[in-house]
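User: Can you predict the 3D structure of tRNA(Ile)-lysidine synthetase? Sequence below.
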Amino acid sequence: MRYKIFQDVCMQNQISVLLVAHHADDQAELFILRSSRDSGVLGLAGMAFTSQVFSSHTNFCNNDWKNHSVLLVRPLLDFSKEDMYKICQGSNRGWVEDPTNRSPLFARNRIRASLGNLLSGTFNSELQAVISVCRRTRIYVDQICNSLIKQSITVMDQGFAVINLKTLNPSKIEDICLSKFITLVLQFVSQRQRPIRGSTSKLLLQYIRTIPCKTSLTAAGCYICPAPGSKGFKALVCCSVDCPLPSNAESFHTFSNVEEEHCFSDELEQIIANGKSYSNNNLVTNSSQAQFLDMRSQSVLDEARRLDVISESTHRNIISLQREEVSHFKSKTDEVASGCESKQGTEHIAAFLSEPLLPGQTCYFMNRFIISWKLSKEISSNWFRGEPLSLSYLEGDDHCCCVNEDEMVAKVRTTIDADWLYLAKLTKLPHSDNFEATRLPLTGKITCSDYSRLSAKVALKTLKSIPVAARKSIPVLVDDHGRLLSIPSIGFKHCPCMKASAVFKPRVPLGGGHSSFL
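Assistant: Sure. Here are the predicted structure tokens for tRNA(Ile)-lysidine synthetase:
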């Protein structure tokens, strides 16, 4: 919630970079906290110096949609809290102490108090040295993953990704890198940013290492299966509509016109480009420079002791802190578990229906698609090449019977099998040579049966190029009664007066955006 407020303030004030005051003691606390939860080396690397944080705000700039992001920078990670006090005292600056920071109810506070009794010069420097080695390993893994994404991933406009398993060559990749790679791909397709751990991570590793792949798998909000025609050497990663909606998902966000027209400066892009250039000049070129690969917290500490990164006393003190926090964690977990009741009626993506979307409005659907629609009297007669269709009957004061802008609203949902059956049914409607026959008897308005028939015919041709597994997550627009209005991704619309679009623009880009542990 705190960062969401920061993002909103940054958006309103066109701020691209946010500096926060996390320091070295915070990193030490986080190391103990995560090691007590048996985190791997990537988690033990702590907080990044810079990381890109994305919001649901989007703006239309230079004929393209751009996701609004803030670059979160932690310039004080090399300074201790004692350094902060000295800086403030030396410059006669006052500061505020948060009284809740002393409450033993919170894990960080308990760890902070315990660390306060141990932070001698030797202990502190050795603990920071372990964190530094973990960060170097994290840099190596991130480099490998970025390279794998560029080489082996193709992102399709309909919202799914294709992994080229031959190019990926998973048998040559360390488990930790491959696991992180597949996590990034699944997080991108599903737009769920939760880490993938435990049995799910092992299942995904086993699946991706099996070439050719012959089975399907549902995990972390995604459906994975062999790509049609690839003989199992390519895998599709599609958003699974049969998974429960994340409890904190902002599934539907409507933009104001101000947001759409907002253009941010190129300053942030230049800062990120400079950061990437700096990272490229400080590469961890091979695994021999990255210790602790594929190690859990206990193994990391044991290896750090073996390599003389830490002394025996520091090793013993860290283990003691871990055990103390583990006991708190287990008791708290048991308490929460005993008070929990199973939740009934979990909402799934497939059942999700958005709020009404008025003509001219734009929305973010499931953090994946930017959707807009409007009604227009500008009718093109060249939409269906090679198909006989005259739109002359819409000239003058005639209007299609679906056009009633004052009353017409649309809702967005994902596709269901009935939508494809409906399109097939439309293609079988008889062609009308006499447009007068299509006028409604009482109002004299004209129906769109001829247009929708041809639109459905063209849409079904396009549909054949989209794998069956990927079709279910395609967004559709329906009216208040649930009747199909448009499937923008395949070019179907019921009425020639309707203009609708669905642009695949995930909130968080593939790879999670820019971050640096340097």
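The chain has two domains: 1-95+102-249+261-331, 377-496. The chain is about 40% helix and 15% strand.
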